[in-house]
Structures are given as C-alpha cells and as structure tokens.
Amino acid sequence: MKKPLLIVLIILAAILILPVINLIQWAFKEKKPMDIIIVNKTVPSIDREKHKSFHWILTNDRFVKKGNKRSFSYRKDYYGFIPTRPLKKKLWDRNEYRLADLKDLPEKADAIYVTDTYGVFFNEWYQGFSQSRRTRKIYGGLNNNDNLLIKEMKDRNKLVLMEYNSFDYPTAEYESYRAQERLGITYSGWTGKYFSSLDSTSREFPAWMTAMYRKQYKKHWTFSKPGIVLLREREIIVLEEGTHLNNPFPEIVTDPSYSASWNLAGNIYFDQWFDIIDPMENNVISKFRISTTSKGDTLLSENSLVNEFPAVIQEPLQKRTYYFSGDFTHRNIPYCTSRFKSFEKLKGLLYSRKPDDPRRFFWLYYKPLIEGIFNEYYNSITGK
C-alpha cells in the first residue's frame, strides 16, 4: 500500500473512531441524579432555543432525573408553552403546575431554572402577520404560581436560577415587584441589545424601534453602523459605534475568583438581550461593560445610567439563588453532540479565535457557568 493512501486511511479511521470513544466515555461517566424544574414560556418553534442549550449541558455533564436515571429531554422536560404536531396547523399545549402542586413539587425538586417568561405572541406564532409591532399575547408572563413556587424553593434552601425578562412585559407589575423582592434586587426598567447593524432597511432590524425613536426625538432615524439600543416603556436610547461607542459589543467581565474556580472567560462579548438591575446586597459575579465614548457617557448620564451594571448576581448568604441579566440560554446548540465527552475540546470546529464570534459565549462562559453552579450545588447536597 502506498504511503499517502495509508496516511489517508489512518486519518479516516481516527475520525470515525474518536466519536465512538467519546460516546463510550460519556456513557460510563458517573450520573448525577437531580430533579430540576425548568420553566420556559417562550417556545415559538420546535427548536426550543430558549432552553435547549441548558438541557445540552445537563445531558453532557450527566445530570439525570432521579426517578428513572435518564437524561433530561429538551422536548418534554420543562413547564411552559409546547408546540404540537402537525406544525402546519399551529396547535399548541401548555404544561403548568397548579396551586395544588406547590405543596409537593418544591419538596421533591432540587432546583428551579426560569429560563424565559416573555411568552409567545400572535404574530410570532401565526405566519403572515407583521413582525414590526406588538400583538396580542397567546401565552406568557410570570404569574402568581411561579412566584409562589420560587418562594417555596427558596424557603427550602434549594437552588434557584432566573434569567432575563423575568420582570418586564408581559409580566404584571405586581408579579414583577414580587419577583424582584424575592431576589433582593431592583429592576430599572431598561433593557438593551447589540445590533450588528442599526440600518433600518435591514430585514433583521425591528421597524418599531425607528417609529419609537421618531416619536420621542421628533427626528428621523439616521443610524446605520453597529450599536446598542436601550429601551424602557416608551423611551429609547441609541448608542452607535464611533459616535457613542468605541466598541459596539457589550462585554461580560467576571470577578477573577469566579473566573478561576469555575473556569469562566474573564471577558466575553454578548450579543443577546439584557436588562439593567440594581443588585442591592447581592454578590456580583459578572458585570456588563459598555465601551462608551465621552458622548456616550453623557447620553447615559442624562438617563441616570452608567456603562457598567450586573450580568450575574448571587444571593450573599446561602449562595443558592442567582439571576442572569441576559438572555443567556438562547443558543441553538446541536443537541446530538451532547452525548460526546470532552466535545468542547474541538475548539477550532466549535468557534473561531475572533472575539466577536457569538459561539464563544456558550463554550467559554455559559457552559462553565452552569457546570460550576450545578456541580457546586450537587456536591453540597450529596456531601461529595
């Protein structure tokens, strides 16, 4: 056999054998039984993008359900909005806990993660309707049962995680206040997001923002570069690269002690929605930093804002309650790869070295963050 052909065959064999080895290693990895309540009310497609990445981590790290010791299913194991087949008929169901369930459910569960409560709206669910304006809600918003369940879990010193949009529309003001009180924080009312282009002619840019800007400032939308848009009820602030921003990407900066112990990236760019909170007495694990110019600082100051605010907070006493001030879970990760051990070592295939590659956030920040929190908690309740 010629040497070049032999080399090719060896490479092909390695490509085929390595996944099998990784799958076997994953299968024999020690299972970690834990009952986790997952809440996601924003599921406008069968992809379940608002919680799939979290389920990927649970499966990959061998967290399993206590009863049958099986991995969590991102299609079934959550409470919230459930698309049903056939999809073309646009039928849906809901999986909810009732008031009567709140006696036993928090006693049996070990943790709760509220990944998204925004919900599903008419123009998102039914095709052919304008995406440029807010329409009638089909399902969504934090409610009384959610708040009661969170309270019961906290009272039992269980692990509690909540994420972006737990306080804003369409959650009622009273329920929002109760959730903030439960977490010991104050929500400013401001939310924001990075946009790769502020050009209003782009198909991906929300047209309603330009109308909101014209109404508030009485002038036309002239932005076209990358930037950040901040919103609060009927108010809008636009920060554009060059004029208001040195760098258009919001950056998450992590406290060195957590970065070291949980193997988190010290600095990582973030391209999804976020909200601005006052952490009060909570520990700040990570914070958002916006690279503003002097003009950008002035614009923020005029609205009682600063260019740094919390990204991840932790309750300071028991250290078992967390809030993520960003849409962290919103990542469409190929779920079939969750059963391969050490899959994250394929760095060149998973993400590039470019700091603005959005895939870096999951592998370098969100995955180790969740693994750090859940493994630390699991070890504490099992005595390991």
What does this molecule look like?
The protein is α/β, with parallel strands linked by helices. The chain has two domains: 33-184 and 315-384, no CATH class; 188-280 and 288-308, no CATH class. Helices cover 31% and strands 25% of the residues. It is built from eleven helices and 18 strands. The strands form four sheets. A ten-stranded mixed sheet has the order 5-4-2-6-9-18-17-16-13-14, with helices on both faces. A four-stranded antiparallel sheet has the order 12-11-10-15, with helices on both faces. Strand 11 (227-232) and strand 12 form a beta hairpin. Helix 2 (52-60) packs across helix 11 and helix 5 (144-155) packs parallel to helix 6. It is globular, with a radius of gyration of 22 Å. The chain starts with a helix and ends with a helix. The relative contact order is 0.13.
